[in-house]
Design brief:
This protein has about 270 residues and is an alpha/beta fold. It folds into two domains: about 10-105 and about 245-269, 3-Layer(aba) Sandwich (Rossmann fold); about 110-235, Rossmann fold, CATH 3.40.50.720. It has nine helices and twelve strands. The strands form two sheets. Strands 2-1-3-5-6-4 form a six-stranded mixed sheet. It has a six-stranded parallel sheet with strand order 9-8-7-10-11-12, sandwiched between helices. Helix 4 crosses helix 5.
């Protein structure tokens, strides 16, 4: 390790956060580029009730960058100095850059969704079903509708789904109506189901077909949803791909350097 008093600190915050692979990914990138004396990346568990005090700490300690995961992507917004245009449209921040004391919010989650999807299909005209209506779902909605895809949103609280649909267009359903999801071309799980218990799934296997693409934003091992999708012959995208591609853009925002993608993917896998 080459950490000195001059090393800039970057971090991921969440609750939970112990599962996060972001520190390994970013630190491997720093080492590969020989800038591990300039940057170090850590993880911090932060309760949502403490987010205001946390942001004060970022300012006081001159933390360079903060990656926000559940449940902070929207909670952090009121305490920032500025938000870039994409993050404003999405209404969710997953990246904070400390620019000489000015805290600027960005969203790179949408690239974490769009990049791996566009590697295997064209989205224009496809029906994309999102499960969940939180911060990650907002990024997904922005990503897929910007390419001309049709949106359907499934959420436990139908009012939240309707709010999302009002902003990005689309049709809404409650989780009690998940049988309709069988008609979707692409299904994206943005809930935390499967994060703690890998055997838990949000979607019955009978609703998945071989003609679909199943994308699970949960990462840290193969989820039951992805196992079921593979058994049904569907194409799958693991949450690690989202983590990688959103992290690639974060890396550049924090360091000013292009990310060594191959090195970062190897660490994640």
């Amino acid at each position: 390790m080459k950490i000195t008093a001059q090393t800039k600190i970057c971090m991921v915050i969440g609750d939970p956060v112990g599962h996060s692979l972001s520190p390994k990914m970013h630190n491997a990138g720093y080492e590969a580029l020989g800038i591990d004396d300039q940057f170090v990346y850590i993880a911090c568990l932060v309760k949502v009730k403490d987010i205001e005090n946390f942001v004060k700490g970022v300012r006081a300690m001159k933390i360079r960058g903060v990656s926000c995961t559940i449940p902070h992507k929207m909670a952090v917004i009121p305490y920032l100095d500025d938000i870039d245009e994409v993050a404003k449209k999405i209404g969710s921040v997953n990246t904070i850059v400390n620019d000489n004391g000015r805290l600027i919010g960005y969203n790179t989650d949408w690239l974490g969704i769009l990049t791996p999807l566009e590697k295997i299909t064209k989205l224009n005209g496809k029906t994309v079903a999102i499960i969940g209506a939180g911060g990650a779902a907002r990024a997904v909605s922005y990503a897929v509708t910007s390419t001309g895809a049709k949106l359907t949103i499934y959420n436990r609280t139908i009012e939240k789904a309707k709010e999302l649909a009002k902003e990005f267009g689309g049709v809404t359903f409650s989780l009690d109506e998940l049988e309709n999801i069988a008609n979707a071309d692409i299904i994206i799980n943005t809930t935390s189901v499967g994060l703690i218990n890998k055997n838990e799934t949000i979607l019955s296997k009978k609703l998945i077909s071989k003609n679909q693409i199943i994308f699970d934003a949960v990462y840290g091992g193969e989820t039951q949803l992805l196992k079921d999708a593979k058994e049904k012959g569907a194409q799958t995208i693991a949450g690690i791909e989202m983590l990688l591609h959103q992290g690639v853009e974060q890396f550049k925002l924090y360091t000013g350097h292009a990310a060594p993608i191959d090195v970062m993917r190897k660490v994640l896998l």
